[in-house]
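Hi D.,

Good news: the full-assembly prediction came through. Inputs first.
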Amino acid sequence: MEPVVKDAVVHLRAAVSLLGRFPALAGLDLDVGRGEVVLVQGSNGAGKTTLLRTCAGLIPVSSGEAIVLGCDLTVAADRGAVRRRVGLLGHATGLYDDLTVTDNVRFWARACGATKQEADAALAVLGLDGRLADVVVAKLSAGQRRRTSLAALVARRSELWLLDEPHAGLDQAGRDVVDKLIRSAAAAGATVIVASHELDRAGAIADRTVTIAGGTVVTPSAPSAPHSPHDSTPHDPAPPPPPPPPDPTRKPEVLGVP
Amino acid sequence: MFRDAALVAGKDLRVEWRSRVTINQVAPFAVLVLILFAFALDPDRGVLQQATAGLFWVAVLFSALLAVQRAFAIESVDGNRDALRLSGLDPAGIFLGKASAVALELAGLEALLLVGVVVLYSTTLSGWLLLVTTCVVATIGLAAAGSLYGVLAAGLRVRETLLPLLLLPVVAPVLLGATRAFEAAFGQTTADGWSWVGLLTTFAVIYVAFGVLAFGSLLEES
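Then the structure:
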């Protein structure tokens, strides 16, 4: 049984999610506290991606408990509500090939209520504000597309980051930027769940590691104390903006780009 | 909802402007359809002129199919549909935005096709108010119905072949009403045409309202 975490952002108990008739999550228990960075590892088909998509509200939970950011994922309306507050970086980039890097990031940023300035700041964080800014996405390399997708994620300023193989396709500098983004996001109070096969790199930035197999947690680790906002590495060149305080004039912090 | 609609419409139109699919492929296809009809009916130009209204709207329907398929094809690649679902955009806004973009593209195509029937079919355009009103309401109806069925088919592997099967029977009233209204305009009997405009308006209102209400569920299930 997964240890209980106070103030859990993610609370799953015996959660079952079906892909067709196949139980991709088969009674999974997981608690993740605010500000935690959790690495989810497991073999191919273990259920890592399904776990992230379930937490994002994209896959219904057919039985068990599933509370994410206070939303009950067994209820359709709550799944819609949680989507606005999470940022999912999946295998796909969620980018429009015919639009430029700037167009894409600005579109997804504006979709969640962020300003053009916030989108441009996110482009700068990912090093996309130079010659790549006006290049259409179809002409980018896989790594550059990944960075563009990450820029949209940063602009979204989500409360819960769900990252599926975030280092895939990135060069060394890009991987370092991802690590710094994750640390900075957690330091700013966001919660991060990373699914990765790159255990050395992802494990180094995670507070704990959870192993899943067959849609269930097989080796939970004890949760550590959440990051304090003062844990942020002083060398971070451009940390992503933290989840802002509630602002009634702005839509909930969201991100549309997986 | 209207802010989201403007955002989505702007994005779709920017995609089309950058990709030039409508200009380089759909528009030539529409003109080609007119030319082929002209070849087929050339021996009797009287028949061609009599059939101008119907041929015009058949060309518009075929073009609408391509425009709708294109509008939803860009959402079917690289996780864009999931990104839309996660975006926080109002589904009704997404529907209105996509339908607006398709409608604007169709309006441009219709202007081109009107020039085409004048040049190729020697048609004399008359009853301008009726013509323009018919184009506006028929285009709204086509774009709304197309967007609704477009998202329905978008998640399926057979969407390219399924969409025409779903959409063409549904938009038959638009073909009928718009053709009759155009015939009335060309024949200087505009009074007869306005009742068909009423049918087209009803069709447009129903599909816009249905789309606003149902698009979210269809996007979820697609």
